[in-house]
Amino acid sequence: MEIKILSGKEVSDAVYSALKNRITTLKSKSITPGLAVVLVGEDPASQIYVRSKTRKFLNLGLYSETIQYSASITQDELIYKINELNNDGAFHGILVQLPLPNHIDGDMVINAIDPNKDVDGFHPYNLGCLASGKPIFIPCTPKGIMRIFDHYNITLSGKHVVVVGRSNIVGRPISILTSLKQANANGTTTICHSSTNNISYYTKQADIIILAIGSPEFLKGDDIKKGAIIIDVGINRVTDNSPKGYTLVGDGDYSSLNGKASAMTPVPGGVGPMTIAMLVENTVEAAERTLR
């Protein structure tokens, strides 16, 4: 069985094309969607990710500003800055790049963001709206996964979806989205995680597997049934002898899954581009809400 590659690059390009008219309409009303990104510390992966987000905003003619602090900033100082951004009309969205230093309570920081500017969808209010089946801002990675399903006409209704991972960033939100009673969802969803005994018992039953456990090449071909669809959220650096000194791999072992899975997102180039695309879309939606 030849595996079909579910390209996040292809889907994200379609998202950006669809957003152009909405951005033009906002600008005709003197509104330029704006995003404030708060970056704390010197984490290399976070810096690369923030640069990618900023570059995409600038390419689309949107406004983005990165506010960077040293890892020694206090929690009170950080929350004070977020309150300033909450009241700054230039920014329709606020994103605090995670992870934060250990001395800062990430939950308190996220809770300080105005829910109307929470384009990451992590505020308890927005997570609660999602859980109730009436989402406002959906976390970007799960929203991007659902858009991949839509783009490739992958039907969830009547399918068994197994999510491996339970974080508030990916696992829990996508488990809700896939099981919502909606035309593009309505799957039967099981959540597995690091403490689940015999995860392969569940993945072997799955029609669709969403991997978000952060373990390099965790899922093997023997762990799935023939024809399963794999959405791989994992991005793991594995040290090797390449010029870079490492290779990026997902949570799925592509070499053993290829030939048994019917379709799979690549790493990189799968879910990653969709996360940024959904951040842009959420920021545009936040700007549009100011007109209501």
Order of helices and strands: EHEHEHEHHHEHEHEEEEHEH
CATH architecture annotation of the largest domain:
3-Layer(aba) Sandwich
Shape: globular
Radius of gyration over all CA atoms, rounded: 19 Å
Order of strands in the sheet with most strands: 1-11-8-7-5-6
Please tell me the overall pLDDT.
95
The figure for the number of domains is: 2
Poorly predicted regions: none
Helical fraction equals 25-40%
Number of helices: 10
- Under CATH at level 1, the class of the largest domain stands as Alpha Beta
Structural class: alpha/beta
Q: How much of the polypeptide forms β-strand, as a percent range? A: 15-25%
In whole angstroms, how far apart are the ends? 50 Å
Instruction: Return the CATH topology of the largest domain.
Output: Rossmann fold
Biggest sheet: strands, sense, closure? Answer: 6 strands, parallel
Task: Give a count of the beta strands, DSSP E runs of length 2 or more.
Answer: 11
Q: CATH superfamily name of the largest domain? A: NAD(P)-binding Rossmann-like Domain
Write the layout of secondary structure elements.
Elements: E1 4-5, H1 8-28, E2 34-40, H2 44-59, E3 63-69, H3 75-86, E4 93-96, H4 106-112, H5 124-131, H6 140-151, E5 160-164, H7 171-179, E6 188-192, H8 199-203, E7 208-211, E8 229-232, E9 236-239, E10 246-249, H9 254-257, E11 263-264, H10 271-289
Parallel strand pairs: 1-11, 2-3, 2-4, 5-6, 5-7, 7-8, 8-11
Antiparallel strand pairs: 9-10
Helix pairs in contact: 1-10, 6-7, 6-10
Question: How would you describe the overall organization of this protein?
Answer:
The chain is built from 10 helices and 11 strands. Helix 6 packs across helix 7 (171-179) and helix 6 (140-151) packs across helix 10 (271-289). The mean pLDDT is 95. The relative contact order is 0.17. The strands form 3 sheets. Strands 1-11-8-7-5-6 form a 6-stranded parallel beta sheet. The protein starts with a strand and ends with a helix. By secondary structure, the protein is an alpha/beta fold. It has 2 domains: 30-115, Rossmann fold (3-Layer(aba) Sandwich), CATH 3.40.50; 140-271, NAD(P)-binding Rossmann-like Domain (Rossmann fold, 3-Layer(aba) Sandwich). Strand 9 and strand 10 form a beta hairpin.
